[in-house]
Amino acid sequence: MQIKSIAMIVIAGCAIGMLTGCGVPQEEYDAMVAQLTSEKETAVNELQTKLDDTTSLLTAEKTRTSSLNSDLRDSTVLNDELKQANDELKATIEDANGQISTLESQLATARASIRTAQDRATAAENGRSQAEMETRNTERRFNELILNLINLNKIKPSDVGWPELDAAAGVSEPADSMDFGGGDSETSAASLLDAMGDM
Questions:
Q1: DSSP secondary structure letters along 7-63
Q2: Rounded to an integer, what distance in angstroms lies between the CA atom of residue 12 and that of residue 34?
Q3: Could you tell me which of 5, 95, 144, 178 has the fewest CB atoms within 10 Å of its CB?
Q4: Of residues 30 and 120, which shows the higher confidence score?
Q5: Nearby residues of 36 by Cβ (< 8 Å), 6 or more positions away
């Protein structure tokens, strides 16, 4: 557009020179100058309008670019924050996994301890039952021994401190008529003791 304006001005100058040198009437000269001036102003106005539009567009583009740069900075900051949060989350997950592994190990140890304690309790219960059984067997054998000795000597259990064995002994003779001696009784008692020892 500027080249066109310059060309028109040059042409106008040439035309003015030609008209002046050729004796063009003043009215025609003035009219041509006015026309050229008008065209020049129109061209300048058009250029100014385009310049204003371009300036406005440039200002808007600068504003948009500034906004985009601000958004980019915000996005960068947000991305850095998200990356930091992600790293912290990963560290937290790793710590949690470590704690889980530790708890699982402790749980396995506790379960093993419980099984060991249960085994010991079972063994202790079995031992207690065995001991009770052996105690009952011992008491039974001892009572049998006492009854046999009492029967051999023809006395009542109540006379020697075991009244609860009277019924089991089956002895009815009074104590003053019982025989506390005699070789046969002693021999029988000794034989009975030897038999009890072999049980």
A1: HHHHHHHHHHHHHHHHT--HHHHHHHHHHHHHHHHHHHHHHHHHHHHHHHHHHHHHH
A2: 11
A3: 95
A4: 120
A5: 8, 9, 12
